[in-house]
Amino acid sequence: MALKSLFSTLLIAMLAAGCNRSAAPEAALEEPEALGVTRWTEKTELFAEYPPLAVGSTSRFAIHLTRLDGFKALTEGHVEVRLEGGSAQPEVFRVDAPSRPGIFGVAVKPTHAGKRQLVLVLKATGLSDEHRVDDVDV
Length: 138
Known about the structure:
globular, four-stranded antiparallel sheet, 1 helix, five-stranded antiparallel sheet, mainly beta
């Protein structure tokens, strides 16, 4: 009789615990897929990744630049991300130095929606270059 009572108590406790479970967590919102671009000029190679652009949202660009004369990552200089064209004035976002050799992180927070041309501009000692990228939607 004691075994039957113990079994009943355990069964009731398990059922009660099952009823008290909290609801399953909601699925996390999926992040939009990052966009990437690779371009070359006579002076530099560019590889950049960035999330889709949205008005009022900050998108972090990871921009890698390599000098083609010697294939060395840039260790100084500043990079601008420009959004040009469309019906709005150009918007310019800048970082004054790489966070590590060749890598420039630029925070871009557009204020105008529409189709814009993405332009990446590099200015370093003895080197100035520009990469005109395809149009982007903001």
